[in-house]
Design a protein that fits this description.
The chain is mostly helical. It has a single domain (about 25-149), classed as Four Helix Bundle (Hemerythrin (Met), subunit A) (Up-down Bundle). The chain has helices spanning about 5-20, 25-45, 55-80, 85-110, 115-140, 145-149. Helix 4 (about 85-110) packs antiparallel against helix 5. The longest helix is centred in the C-terminal third of the chain and has 26 residues, at about 85-110.
């Protein structure tokens, strides 16, 4: 079975399961609380922000450790029940998070190899991705997620 077919089947299954919930303000509040809880757990699992990136390999190890938390966060956010009116925006958020994670994954080898020029490309690529995540979180009213972005 091709990866595209598997992805399509998983997407359809997720849509069917998400459609089983009830609508209304209560479900909107539950959605925001559930997503914010995932973000809060990820935020508290992260170590302190690096004070310097002068030592690129050390910074690369920190990024690799953080990426594991971000991947888990994305997986958990994918399981949150989303009200129908927010599904398109939430899907855009998940895509933006996935893009951000992929960019971080690509940045780790040059950081670990102490390749400054390649590491600079990381910075210029991740910033727009992080902004896209922040904008989607703001649009959805995910307060904890938004603060941690």
């Amino acid at each position: 079975m091709s990866h595209i077919r598997v992805a399509a089947l998983v997407t359809v299954l997720a849509a069917i399961l998400a459609a089983c919930g009830s609508g209304g303000a209560s479900s909107q509040k539950q959605f925001v609380n559930a997503a914010d809880l995932v973000c809060y757990r990820a935020e508290t699992a992260l170590g302190p922000s690096p004070k310097s990136i002068k030592n690129l390999p050390s910074f690369g190890r920190e990024v690799a450790a953080d990426l594991k938390i971000y991947v888990k966060e994305l997986h958990e956010l994918s399981a949150v029940k989303v009200p129908s009116q927010d599904r398109a925006d939430y899907s855009a958020l998940l895509r933006a998070l996935s893009t951000e994670n992929e960019l971080l994954r690509e940045a780790i080898p040059p950081l670990l190899a102490n390749k400054l020029d390649e590491a600079r490309q990381f910075s210029s690529s991740v910033s727009p991705a992080a902004l896209a995540v922040y904008n989607q979180e703001s649009k959805l009213g995910l307060l904890v997620c938004e603060k941690s972005a």
